[in-house]
Fold:
Amino acid sequence: MLWSGWGDPGRAAPLPEPVVRLLHDLLGVRPAEAPPPPLADVAVPASRLAAGDLAALARIVGDRHVADDAEARVRHTRGKSTPDLLRIRAGDASAAPDAVVLPGTHEEVLDVLRLCAGRGVAVVPFGGGTSVVGGLAPEGGAAFVALDLRRMDALVSLDEVSRTAVLQPGLRAPEAEALLGARGYTLGHFPQSYEWASIGGFAAARSSGQASAGYGRFDDLVVALTVATPEGTLDLGRAPKSAAGPDLRQLVLGSEGALGVITSVTVRVRPVPEAREYEGWRFASFDAGAAALRGLAQDGPMPAVLRLSDETETMVGLADPSEIGGDSGAGCLAVLGFEGAAERVAEVRARAADALRAAGGEPLGAGPGEKWEHGRFDAPYLRDALLDAGAFAETLETAAFWSDVPALYEAVRTALTATLSELGTPPLVMCHISHVYASGASLYFTVVSAQGADPVAHWARAKRAACDAIIDAGGTISHHHGVGTDHRDWYAREIGPLGAAVLRAVKERVDPSGILNPGVLVPPAV
Ligand SMILES: Cc1cc2nc3c(=O)[nH]c(=O)nc-3n(C[C@H](O)[C@H](O)[C@H](O)COP(=O)(O)OP(=O)(O)OC[C@H]3O[C@@H](n4cnc5c(N)ncnc54)[C@H](O)[C@@H]3O)c2cc1C
Structure:
């Protein structure tokens, strides 16, 4: 992973010249003043660990699995939100962990947690490091270690009768797919961060993948979990569903490292689909397209992938950088994907086409769908290229019931546009629906603007306005990115004072010393 950006440095590509010109003409984007410094020049703060901490950690995991050199610390600094990238690109590693610890087993995780609880050292579980909500930057100023789970990367077992698999948390998604694929199975979980994010991170942050319509969110896939806490082990899930009290698995899903370290995840798996087919549709407006998607979600048939870009996103052609600024046509582009047995795919595809035609859709054939499928993991690389070109680019997301979606869409767009325009960096605000349910949908916004004098501060103001708008319009503060530190205050508003107190009580029981991801997720008492 590129320390100052996304993914495989070999795949980075500059923006085409016409796009740079368009950004200049449309948004006043000027070339970035300075490229990121070399990694070796990035300074990390002095370690806050006490004498003997590192040696004690090494006795648990082995000398080779504790690192406190600058490179290891920089590579575990914050996550991959745009403010995270802007800070690290400016050489700011002030949020670096004091050391990186790589446990190999559940027992080692337990021992590390007990040791750290005794010594007052905070612990931040680290999967793929792709958090975009400040989930890897604890608050409070105490010494902390990044607990990197990459050594726990096995497919432990596959139960072909139940169609479940036991996975270790440090498996990255492509590795998990490869191991399962070799046995004829798939998870069907393909978030945009697929290339780097981990199984533990998916569970800890309630991730949702691009094929959520067909396979479900990651939290829908999880049937059992093992969690290490400073107070011992939680083993949860002995049947797919149960009436034995509240489902404590749901307390762990989305717990973002604040309640324990997930050391094992049992997930539902499905046979690798025989056929995968993608196609495009055009709708006259976002409203018309959203109504068509709602029809499929409520009355069927449901494809595996179902997404709809608004007019601006369709016009910009964000799905394909080579198309940016080109003629991608008017209206709103929808992409549908169908997966499964070939005969079933053909049948569902035909029924969906009837429903979409009846809802006013115009079929565009396989081209736009296949283009989307081909470039679906490219957007993070495009963000790096935009930052290099002096532009600002960031995303945020929410979800609501269908009846609230139109007002939520308008409220968030207005908040982002008004705030950034007032600050002198008028943005382009684009949106798509990419996770659809019978009762509602998520809205995913992409914002591009000039960077201005202080892009981190500009964005903080715009993001605050957007988060206020989300809560005021009845949306949730996150459909799939999670809470972290960035969304915690709005999450507190969403669950109310009693909800926050319940969460604090649970944390106090499993983490009495408060060493697990301090400041992440759990609202403080007021
Ligand atoms: C470019 C980009 C695109 C993205 N696209 C999507 C998307 O399409 N869908 C989506 O859902 N998300 C998306 N995300 C957000 C992010 O990838 C997800 O939240 C993902 O689930 C994080 O996985 P990770 O392994 O990188 O976790 P990390 O970033 O390492 O950790 C996330 C949080 O979980 C905690 N954690 C990690 N592992 C464990 C564990 N084993 N036990 C307990 N706590 C743990 C961490 O402390 C942190 O608070 C995107 C992010 C980026 C940068």
Observations:
- The two ends are 39 Å apart (CA to CA).
- The pocket of flavin-adenine dinucleotide is lined by residues 79-80, 124-132, 135-136, 149, 169, 191-193, 197-198, 200-202, 204-205, 207-208, 256-257, 261-262, 380, 480-482, 517, 520 (CB under 6 Å).
- Residues 488-510 form the longest helix (23 residues).
- DSSP finds 18 helices and 18 strands in the chain.
